[in-house]
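Field reference: sequence -> structure
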Amino acid sequence: MPQDQPKDADIKPSHDILPLILCGQDDRFLWPRARRSCETLLARTDTQKSHLATLAQTFHDAGLAAPILVTSSTDSTPVQEQLAELGLGAGLIIETPAPAGTAISVCAGVEYLAQFDPEQLMLICLADHWTYDTDDLIHALRTATPLARHGHLVMFGVASSPIRPNLVHIEMAQGNAASTSPQPIAHMAFDPEAVAIDHMIGTNRYLCAADIMLCSVKTMRASYGKHAASIRAQVRRAIREGQRNDALFTPAVSLDQIGQEDFRRSILEHEQGYVVPCKFAQKSKSTWNDFLQDAPKDDSGSHISGRAVAINCAESLVINDNQQIEVVAVGLESIAVVATDDALLVTDLQSLHQVPSALQSLALKTTPLMTGIPTGQTDTIYSAPDASLKWINVPVGATLPERQLQGADTTWVVISGSGEVMIDAAVQIIAPKSVVSISQGQTYQLINTGQTDLRLIEIVPHPRSTNASDIDIALDDLALTRS
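Structure field:
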């Protein structure tokens, strides 16, 4: 049980609260329309402002410090571009080699900040799918700050949000859903089943977790030490071996080998603290359940769109974005059917939390579907202690922006298409079977000058395997040779 709340007289002088925003974690709850959560985060809304832009603007208007954003190398450029459009810069972007699990992403921010100020207060923003009223957010943070300064982890809970699967719910040790003051946390319920939901509603002691939390760097670092010491040790090493270039920090490539552990399961499930009841948060469309709740529905409570017909269906979602096929649904109840040009999802709406695990199993059986970014596409093919391989696809006429290689030496192998690579201002013409070597510290840019998509495989040997022979082995596996 948490300690008693501190008195106002015990509160130390205030420090700036620094948001730590996770961008582009591999949630996939809107698959197959959104291959990764960052696509939902960066997608433009009707107001031409993405959810990331809205979130960053709200935190800025609330007087918070410039945020630290943790994102993958795939999403770093669009993240920077959207913040620049608002005239808001990030205090720092931590660029992971690939989309990382939330436990790794939070730990990366914690270990980076621990080098400078362990007392720094962080507003950790785990999810991309909540919106916040600025004035209510300010009030809630004022309430939570004294607790966070005294070493507590402070969550924020919303009473108005319905209890349902795919969300985290907080049980209060005292008080009830109508409470307005901070309450000790008894435990957190993850992905509750239908029977548990009925019990939770009956107790009137649960709040929906708003997926942001306030604590000091020192407090969160101690939590990792207690519950995920191995993750902390590996992330700390990757941060200490990383490199900073202006507002971009790149951890060592070893960060890519830690795994996809979930922060909620690794840390929150084992922690206690306080929850501040609030009204400032609203859930946006982060799952198909959310989409169905807000979408127009027929008399049966179902939403049907695209070339689709539904007969005798109830409370179901049938979406067909593929103009080449027709979808017919008969007798469905609480089922989602979503068809796109290259994928089909069929799931019980109560089982959406299992979709990411199913996609991981699918990835082991098939070549991964590549995920889009404005200047190209990329997806990891293979990742292990010896090396990682990644697809890169650059559309006709597109250019990958000039960048400086911060991590390990990298090799590109051209599979199809043609273009130009500029490395330290030297131009190399590339075509199928061309091999391009980029050394750490070199500046590079890639341009598709051909009439078809430019497809490459990126090979990055990891620190334990940096010999040229390792690259040759990878090329042999692709039936290619150095040119």
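Note: Residues 375-477 form a domain with the Jelly Rolls fold (CATH 2.60.120.10).
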